[in-house]
Amino acid sequence: MRLASIVVLFALGAFTLVECQQDAAQECDPEACQLPTCRCSSTDIPGGLDKRNTPQFVILTFDDAVNSQNLETYRSTIYNRRNKLNNCPIGTTFFVSHEYTEYNGVNELYNQGFEIALHSITHVSNQTYWREASTETLMKEFSDQKSQMAHFANIPINRINGVRSPFLQMAGNATFEMMAEANLRYDLSWPTMAHRDPGLWPYTLHYQSIQDCFIPSCPTASIPGPWVLPIITWQDLEGVACSFVDACFYRPNLDDEDGWFRFILMNFERHYNNNRAPFGFYVHEWFISRNVAVHRAFIRFLDMLNNLNDVFMVNANDVIDWVQNPVPIDEYVRQPCRVNPPSPCRLANCGPLEGQHNSVSYYMRVCNRCPRNYPWLDNPLGL
Ligand SMILES: [Zn+2]
């Protein structure tokens, strides 16, 4: 019995060793790794720019299903805002999960110029499932979701570039191997605490990453192609790290508008006054709509940003564009505004549709013909 365990352990150890030898990426060589397709993980400003000439990007994201209720918050909070210096509409990225999403809402967000990105078909609340997912499973969850999103929301498939793993639980190399295979451009799931001040700029995985990994597993192999857009964690009032604004533990009282405004500003300034790594405001809609004072503080913050001369609120995908071609602010403001080619929605109300996986009756709104079954893993178009 004991001997058997030792043999098994030895076999596992040997396997891991072999795997490491095969896979492990090498230390980054800045001479060999050059923009636009390769970048070492680093806190250096891309293009060797001076801080004063570097746009401060702000990335706002909302996660999970899009429905008519949270659409109301989006309409009242982020529609019709512009960045002051180039007068371009602000960006926001939506990491949409499939279950209960109303796709006419996704179409509306897209037509407002916002970015639609992937957050899985099932979003099952089982951390182990996501940690141990194979490339094949992840292809079904994300690559199939890309086709599903394009189909039901009627948006161009090549405008779907981003990925966020549910619960920020990546599956190590498998996540990025899936992205390379599915032609997905960037991931926004990997938090860093160690590279917060100064912050880590986006980079590729041709070479070994310097980023800390506190939700294992993180990629270790050389995987050319996809970009890592690190989640630079906030610090709460006691200095504890939080990846999502709604997950900060020691936070101002939820009815303290001034406290929340100062809290947001404190975290923003760590970026703005330092190496200007993109500042993330990652949140779930319910947190803003449920807490009026937080909502007000958030709008004050957006108003303040709209008036700063070197701050640009953009889609996450636009940040990768800039990193690939880093230009100083005065040149950046002369670039044309990003536009999403308009794409109409021919609304269809569908249901009840039976979920083949759980026998639940679903209703869904789509910008296409109604599916026969509720779309799910292995049948993303509900044929
Ligand atoms: Zn989620």
Descriptive notes:
This protein is α/β, with parallel strands linked by helices and 383 residues long. It has one domain (53-332): TIM Barrel. The protein is built from 11 helices and 15 strands. It is globular and about 55 Å long. The chain starts with a helix and ends in a 17-residue tail after the last strand. Residues 1-22 have low confidence and may be disordered. The protein binds zinc ion. Zinc ion binds next to loops.
Proper CATH architecture: Alpha-Beta Barrel
What level of helicity do the residues show?
25-40%
State the fourth-level CATH superfamily.
Answer: Glycoside hydrolase/deacetylase
Structural class: alpha/beta
Distance between the termini: 51 Å
Q: How many strands appear in the DSSP assignment?
A: 15
Indicate the low-confidence ranges by residue numbers.
Answer: 1-22
Dominant shape: globular
The major pleated sheet works out as: 5 strands, parallel
Mean pLDDT: 94
Order of helices and strands: HEHEHEHHEHEEEEEEEHEHHEHHEE
What is the third-level CATH name, the topology? Answer: TIM Barrel
Task: Write a compact overview of the structure shown.
With 383 residues, this protein is an alpha/beta fold.
Characteristic terms for this protein:
383 residues; alpha/beta; binds zinc ion; five-stranded parallel beta sheet; TIM Barrel; 33% helix
Question: What are the SSEs and their pairings?
Answer:
Blueprint: H1 2-23, E1 56-63, H2 68-78, E2 93-96, H3 103-111, E3 115-118, H4 127-131, H5 135-153, E4 162-163, H6 173-182, E5 186-187, E6 191-192, E7 203-205, E8 223-228, E9 231-232, E10 234-235, E11 241-242, H7 257-272, E12 279-283, H8 285-290, H9 292-306, E13 311-313, H10 316-324, H11 329-332, E14 348-354, E15 361-366
Parallel strand pairs: 1-2, 1-12, 1-13, 2-3, 4-5, 5-8, 6-9
Antiparallel strand pairs: 7-8, 10-11, 14-15
The structure holds zinc ion (ZN).
Zinc ion binds next to loops.
